[in-house]
Amino acid sequence: MDDQGRGSGPRPEGGGELPPDVRPPGPLPYEGVWRFTAPAVDSSVPQARHAVRDLLARQGVPVSDDLIQGLLLIVSELVTNAVRHAALLSPVLAVEIAVGAEWVRVSVEDNHPYRPTALEADHGQTGGRGLLLVREVTREAGGVCDVEHTATGGKVIWSALPLTPVRAM
Fold it and tell me: In angstroms, rounded to a whole number, what is the distance separating the alpha carbons of residues 66 and 72?
């Protein structure tokens, strides 16, 4: 799946592509797709967050502080959901980071067939709002997110955000 961040995968509205006359030839130095697996255990949550942060810094991805905080929150929530709700049927999860010229996409894949929905949880409960939080952070950044089934019967939950923050009008 190494498509240098330019594959047909989900992207923010407008495709995140520069016009051909503005885009430099070939991929930018920070473009690419990286994937790693982790056991579906609690300790994988901070490890995934740190791995994503370190990867973006190492590749020199031009990401704002606000956007990096949003991405790390999304990664934390998605990995936490996989650990809490899918570990029984999916002892290993996969995290993928795809970076294009003007967008970044993070996804978490597991082998559990259940497709979650964003729930409006009771305010008295301390959990149950992870996917709702992911969708809100994604929306505020001007991105898109979704849940899809995999060919193996599991699911992948992804969020794609523009590297240039959307300005409020």
Answer: 10
The 3-class SS string of the chain reads: CCCCCCCCCCCCCCCCCCCCCCCCCCCCCCCEEEEEEEECCCCHHHHHHHHHHHHHHHHCCCCCHHHHHHHHHHHHHHHHHHHHHHCCCCCEEEEEEEECCCEEEEEEEECCCCCCCCCCCCCCCCCCCHHHHHHHHHHHCCCEEEEEECCCCCEEEEEEEECCCCCCC
pLDDT in tens, 52-99: 999 999 999 999 999 999 999 999 999 999 999 998 889 999 999 999
Q: Which two tokens mark 13?
A: 């509205």
Q: Work out the number of other CB atoms within 10 angstroms of the CB of residue 65.
A: 7
Q: Do 11 and 103 meet the contact criterion of CB atoms below 8 Å apart?
A: yes
Read off the pTM: 0.78
Are the CB atoms for 93 and 37 separated by under 8 Å? yes
What is residue 3's predicted lDDT score, i.e. its pLDDT? 37
Of 94, 96, 105, the residue nearest 154 (C-alpha): 94
Which residues, in sequence order, are CB contacts of 36 under 8 Å at separation 6+? 51, 94, 95
